[in-house]
Amino acid sequence: xxxxxxxxxxxxxxxxxxxxxxxxxxxxxxxxxxxxxxxxxxxxxxxxxxxxxxxxxxxxxxxxxxxxxxxxxxxxxxxxxxxxxxxxxxxxxxxxxxxxxxxxxxxxxxxxxxxxxxxxxxxxxxxxxxxxxxxxxxxxxxxxxxx
Length: 147
Known about the structure:
The protein is built from three helices and ten strands. By secondary structure, the protein is an alpha+beta fold. A six-stranded antiparallel β-sheet has the order 1-2-3-4-5-6, with helices on one face. The chain has a two-stranded antiparallel sheet with strand order 7-8. It is elongated.
């Protein structure tokens, strides 16, 4: 019988970001320090969501699970925490803006969440607005119509 391998150390780390509480479960913090998953709680105590690396070996391909169960991708742990602490806040009146359909030029109303996470906004005409294009040419809160 071989000796069992030593168990990795697991710790819980916590910090505040944009007024939100972030709690991370980290495996083997003395060596590899790989994050298993993290949770973000809003200042009012409600869950904003969780995040984790889909590839634990490399620590990349980050995933976000919002409080409503919707899944998103993130480029890094930092991006996942930033998204959960800033752009996933529920408000009583949704923050909206307008972009233009690339096919029929019809204005399309989008939410800030769509602006920050989606690549396109679909139009009833069957076309869409390329949100990547609009983000390159405007910031949220500006007139989204390309000039």
